[in-house]
Structures are given as C-alpha cells and as structure tokens.
Design brief:
Enoyl-CoA_hyd/isom_CS; 2-enoyl-CoA Hydratase, Chain A, domain 1; 17% strand; globular; 6-stranded mixed sheet; Lyase 2-enoyl-coa Hydratase, Chain  A, domain 2; 10 strands; Enoyl-CoA_hydra_C; alpha/beta
C-alpha cells in the first residue's frame, strides 16, 4: 500500500511512523485507514520489535481530528468515523509490541487520544496537550474520556475535558501523562534510544506484560491476577524464558531471539 499521509522507517528492529499532513497533521479518514494498515503490518513483521509514532515538523504531533471532514458528515457518517477512530486507537493500544509516542508539538483532541493509546509517551519541552471538544459542543470520541481518567483520575480528567484548557509538557509530566520531557532537538533520538533498549528485551515477555497491564487494569483484582497468571505461563513457556533463566544461573548475558 502507498501511504499518502504516513512515512515509516525501519531500522534496528524499530519502526518509526511519522504522520505527515502539515502543517498540523490532523486525523482524517484516510489517516486512520493508513494507521490501521501500517500497524497491522508491523504487528506481523518479525523484523520489528518496537513502534515509535510521531508527527511531522515541530509544530504539532497531531492537532486533533479534521474538523472540516467532521462538519461534512451526518450522524451516520460521523458514527462510522468515530467507530473507525475507536478501532484504530484500540489496535495501537493492544498491538503486542511496545508503542512509544514521541510528542513533538501540540497534541489536541484526537492527537491527545492517539498519544494516550500508546504505551509510553516522551514529550518535547514545547509539547502541549488539550481536549478542546466541549468548546465545539462535542466531547472526546476516540477514547479520551476513558483512557485519560485511568491515568490521572476522574477529578483531573473532568477538569481537563470540561474546561478544555491547554497544559504544557511540565504539567503533563506532573500528571503522569508523559514519562519524560526532553529538549525538542533530542526528542526522536531519545525515543529511539528507549525503543532500542526495548528491542533487547524478550519479545514474548514484553507482550505478556503489556497484555496483563492493559487487560488486568480494567477488571477486579482477582480477575486481573488470573489474567496475569495465564500470561506468566505463556512467557515461561517461551524460548527466551529458558535462555534468560539459563543465562542467570550461568552468570552470562542472555541472548534473546524473540520466541
């Protein structure tokens, strides 16, 4: 497939996806379609262990959904677009490989939701975040009301969504919305460093840890423990687990193969 609004570079088992729709990289139906296609392909690509998502330029990670496209749709059309965005964000959230958002500028509305769907978030010191939807008479529709509160709690989530105010990278770090804030010029290098470190980890263990956290976090404790137990067994049965345990007992560095 030829991508109109995405580029993807694969090097050293890391895929760097750039949303390239300048000047502010808004999400439209075509971007969602391309994201779904590329992430699904990367899930199956054995030469890729980690995915990094960023936006083109320094102005915006993603400045929300394409409002002009939204305005052209009736209720049936907007529901279809909303269903598509939900499916793509869930795909990114649940792909078995770690996904890092490298937030290079403003992340508004759907862009904020895209970042929340990623496992880890590294922000430029110039990054800003907002859910401006209530100012348009709507609400976040791509998972924002749900994923945000699971990170910051209901009180802060209501504040950010009700008022629609902008917060900077420093405040986002304080709220644990991002894992790290770095200078703009170091953003991609830092994200790729994190990604490279993760490529050295056993892939099955990372996938099972991700599954346990993602699915166990939304259920009661006993159900979560059951999910963890099943994923532990899967990780334990992997070739990398055997290698890791052998390397530990033999006091050597493990050589993981991703199986």
């Amino acid at each position: 497939m030829i991508y109109e609004f995405l580029t993807c570079e694969i090097e050293n088992k890391v895929a760097l996806i750039t949303i390239n729709r300048p000047p502010v990289n808004p999400l439209n139906s075509q971007v969602f379609h391309e994201l779904g296609h590329i992430v699904s392909n990367l899930e199956e690509n054995k030469n890729v262990r980690v995915i990094v998502i960023t936006g083109y330029g320094t102005k915006a990670f993603v400045a929300g959904a394409d409002v002009k496209e939204m305005a052209s749709k009736d209720l049936v059309g907007i529901n279809l677009m909303n269903k598509k965005s939900r499916a793509i964000f869930s795909l990114i959230e649940n792909v078995s490989k770690p996904v890092i958002a490298a937030i290079n500028g403003v992340a508004l509305g759907g862009g904020f939701e895209l970042a929340l769907a990623c496992d880890l978030r590294i922000a430029s010191e110039h990054a800003k975040f907002s859910f401006p939807e209530t100012g348009l008479g709507i609400i976040p529709g791509g998972g924002g009301t749900q994923r945000l509160q699971r990170i910051v709690g209901q009180g802060i989530a209501k504040e950010l969504i009700y008022f629609g105010g902008m917060i900077d990278a420093k405040r986002a770090l304080e709220l644990h919305l991002v894992n790290r804030v770095v200078p703009q010029e170091e953003l991609i290098d830092e994200a790729l460093k994190w990604a490279t470190k993760l490529t050295e980890k056993p892939a099955v263990a990372l996938a099972m840890a991700k599954s346990s956290i993602n699915h166990g976090g939304y259920v009661d404790l006993e159900s979560g423990l059951t999910i963890e137990m099943a994923n532990f067994a899967t990780a334990f049965a992997s070739e990398d687990a055997k290698e890791g345990i052998s390397a530990f007992t033999e006091k050597r560095k493990p050589v993981f193969v991703g199986k």
